[in-house]
Amino acid sequence: MTMMGRLIVVDGVEGGGKTTLLEFIRTRLATAGYSVLTTREPGGTTLGEEIRSLLLAHRQDGMTLSAETLLVFAARAEHLAKVIRPALSAGQWVLCDRFTDATYAYQGGGRGLSLDKIAVLEHWVQEGLQPDLTLLFDLPVTVGLERAGRRGAMDRFEREGENFLERVRAAYLERARQQPDRYRIVDANGSLEAVKSQVDALLNRWLEQLHAG
Ligand code: T5A
């Protein structure tokens, strides 16, 4: 029987550098001997990427919170069925740029949707599947926004501004506090080199623990 792969997620407020570090993490895991598929949310499938465009577009200002949350989970359902579960079943590791923690943080913490409602959708769509490891890139919101702003036009979530993102950040940190086994917090408020070396050390320790069983 093939051993199930592992699901590793990078998540956090805007501008933390998680997307920049995705290839670094993939290479680190590949060096450790794992076949790694990288993907992202919202997105990762043809329909999921179309849903992503709807979610991030400025013209969607005014979308109801229910519609926004259901779209996020619709994309996630596709992603799990067509990409994540088949890869894990084949023994591949999946490295995903954002996952359900982002829904708890943005739609829950940021927009104020009840966490119970998110949990209902999570149980429906994920049927108990959870990431094995979530690297939470944490940094002050102002620093993250400044970095994201340098990258170009802001998406619908970045345009919500500082107070919104402060609530998002607090929600991420609260989840990390509640589930310390799954989370590792990366201090993303440093140079790219400093962030890389932290991530490298965290991954080494996590892989050692995994092998120790
Ligand atoms: N969303 C998502 C929800 O609301 N609910 C959900 O359930 C999900 C899954 C898109 C949006 O969707 C929302 C949350 C998001 O707002 P996304 O595609 O992950 O999600 O967001 P992006 O806008 O693409 O990425 P981020 O803004 O989150 O940025 P990253 O990935 O954290 O940062 P990155 O790597 O793109 O870096 C940003 C810039 O900073 C520089 C980089 O070069 C880049 O220019 N940078 C640094 N500069 C100096 N020092 C460092 N240490 C740096 N690290 C990066």
UniProtKB/TrEMBL annotation:
Catalytic activity: dTMP + ATP = dTDP + ADP
Pfam families for this protein: Thymidylate_kin
Residues given in the record as ATP binding sites: G12, V13, E14, G15, G16, G17, K18, T19
GO molecular function: ATP binding; dTMP kinase activity
Keyword terms, alphabetized: ATP-binding, Kinase, Nucleotide biosynthesis, Nucleotide-binding, Transferase
The Thymidylate kinase-like domain, residue ranges: 10-198
Domain of life of the native organism: Bacteria
One Gene Ontology biological process: dTDP biosynthetic process
Entry EC no(s): 2.7.4.9
SUPFAM superfamilies (UniProt xref): P-loop containing nucleoside triphosphate hydrolases
Cellular component GO terms, alphabetical: cytosol
Role this protein plays: Phosphorylation of dTMP to form dTDP in both de novo and salvage pathways of dTTP synthesis.
NCBIfam families: DTMP_kinase (TIGR00041)
HAMAP family named among the record's database cross-references: Thymidylate_kinase
Family as reported in the entry's similarity comment: Belongs to the thymidylate kinase family.
UniProt protein name: Thymidylate kinase
Protein source organism: Candidatus Competibacter denitrificans Run_A_D11
